[in-house]
Design goal:
With about 450 residues, this protein is α/β, with parallel strands linked by helices. The chain folds into two domains: about 150 residues, Rossmann fold, CATH 3.40.50; about 260 residues, Response regulator (Rossmann fold, 3-Layer(aba) Sandwich). It contains 13 helices and 15 strands. Strands 1, 2, 5, 6, 7, 13, 14 and 15 form an eight-stranded mixed β-sheet that branches. Strands 9-8-10-11-12 form a five-stranded parallel β-sheet, sandwiched between helices. Strands 3-4 form a two-stranded parallel ribbon. Strand 1, helix 2 and strand 2 form a beta-alpha-beta unit. Helix 1 packs across helix 10, helix 4 packs parallel to helix 6 and helix 4 runs parallel beside helix 7. It is elongated, with a radius of gyration of 22 Å. The two termini are about 30 Å apart. The N terminus is likely disordered.
Length: about 450
């Protein structure tokens, strides 16, 4: 279901003023109730089917957990194409964004007439705005080879193109629900966010018509910087499948600048040290466009290295709002929307259940703390002052030798605060937060179901 900004505002106001009585926000318990189960919420980093595995013997705790993720209702044909690349795929989160990041880069290179990253970057925003509409790789490449301005629309870029900052002007979010230890797709709701008028209106440089024998620097070389290992490894299968499908379809359509594009695999490790090593390897290998990183904090850590090398960093899954204004020399792009949009959708989801006190627990990095602050601001707009919202954080650690997360004290604080809603913003490692809540006898709503 798509919801307008006005509808969201109405829900925020209703939830803020009707908490003492039965309400449409979904809570029929009066505020005076002394025994109230605590609802659990998550975000795009942990609302996936592999998250329960991280809870081990506490896997039942995800039953009833809700959260949001950037997700467009995907056509069945697109899902089938993804499964042709990875038949074991059981999640599509960020698969469309990965596919589009690769395709948009390829189209920009074709229009630029060169693999020079600086020239490709000048075309990327324009590829999504204001030209001849096209929706398939083969159709768009034909237009680009003729030097025609195009307006690419596909799996994740559906309503509007990129802003001047190189990120989506609009987005779609799915509200996800765990039933048992699996997400129930039948319960997913889709909420539209963003403003189409925010899309760029700047004209890109005139496209170059392909001519035989012209120097272009082909082949176009992509380097992967995706989380094959680390705390975001559960997100890799759909990201990897989306990128692989794009490479396959680009080359099936004749490639870019007369040659097949090349993919060089690479791991970001959900770790700055691993990611920097991968970036250095890609630079040495002559990569033009790096697809990644998976996490916003990892991209922030390697951005200077990529920019100093004059390459493009194009992430399918970075959402930190701070990256919008990063000093990137025009070389950083993303198909994932800013958390400035996700925070509003997430606050709506929580407020519909009519909570009285809310605890927000976030990993301490640009993604976690950034989204935490946005959700807090949205709750404040709905009338939740500081006495009704508690902010906590945890250090996620780096590397396989990092000590386990100890959230025992935070869990105790949440219990003493009397929260009846807990939002956990993190990746795989955030399972430690949920286990700590259970160990502290916080009455999570999933218990006993």
């Amino acid at each position: 279901m798509h919801m307008s900004r006005g509808s969201r505002t109405a829900i925020l106001a209703a939830c803020a003023t009707a908490l003492l009585a039965t309400s449409a926000c979904g809570n029929d318990q009066p505020e005076e109730a002394t025994t109230q189960q605590v609802r659990l919420y998550g975000t795009d980093g942990n609302m996936n089917n592999s998250f329960p595995e991280e809870l081990e013997d506490h896997a039942d705790l995800v039953n009833g957990m809700k959260g949001t993720t950037p997700l467009t209702p995907l056509p069945e044909n697109f899902k089938k194409r993804l499964l042709s690349v990875d038949p074991k795929l059981n999640s599509y989160v960020y698969a469309a964004e990965a596919y589009d990041a690769v395709v948009i880069s390829a189209l920009a290179a074709q229009l630029a007439g060169t693999t020079d990253p600086a020239e490709i970057a000048k075309q990327i925003v324009g590829v999504t705005n204001g030209g001849t509409p096209c929706g398939t790789v083969s159709q768009c490449l034909r237009l680009a080879r003729d030097g025609k301005d195009i307006e690419y629309r596909s799996a994740s870029i559906t309503r509007a193109g990129f802003t001047d900052a190189g990120e989506p002007a609009t987005a779609s979010y799915a509200t996800l629900h765990f039933d048992g230890q699996q997400l129930n797709d039948a319960k997913s709701e889709f909420v539209g966010a963003g403003d189409e008028s925010a899309a760029s209106t700047k004209a890109p440089p005139k496209g170059t018509k392909e001519s035989v024998g012209s120097p272009s620097g082909a082949p176009l070389v992509f380097g992967g910087l995706l989380p094959k290992t680390g705390d975001l490894a559960n997100a890799y299968p759909p990201l990897g499948a989306g990128a692989a499908l794009a490479i396959k379809e680009i080359n099936a359509a004749g490639g870019v600048l007369g040659e097949d594009v090349v993919w060089i695999d690479g791991d970001d490790g959900t770790n700055p040290t691993v990611a920097k090593t991968t970036v250095a390897s890609h630079i040495d290998a002559g990569v033009h466009v790096i697809i990644g990183a998976g996490g916003s904090g990892i991209s922030a850590a390697v951005l200077d290295d990529v920019v100093d090398a004059g390459l493009i960093l194009f992430s399918p899954s970075n959402t930190a709002a701070s990256l919008t204004d990063a000093d990137d020399k025009g070389l950083y792009f993303r198909t994932a929307p800013s958390d400035g949009l996700q925070g509003r959708a997430l606050a709506d989801v929580i407020l519909r259940d009519g909570p009285h006190k809310i605890a927000i627990v976030a990993r301490k990095d640009s993604y976690g703390e950034g989204l935490q602050d946005i959700v807090r601001a949205e709750l404040e707009r709905a009338g939740f002052g500081g006495d009704r919202v508690k902010l906590l954080g945890y250090e996620p650690g780096e590397g396989t030798d990092a000590p386990p997360i100890d959230f025992a004290d935070g869990a105790k604080q949440i219990k003493e605060f009397g929260a009846d809603a807990v939002l956990v913003i993190g990746f795989d490692e955030s399972a430690a937060v949920v286990r700590a809540l259970a160990d502290a006898n916080v009455p999570l709503a999933a218990l006993g179901r």
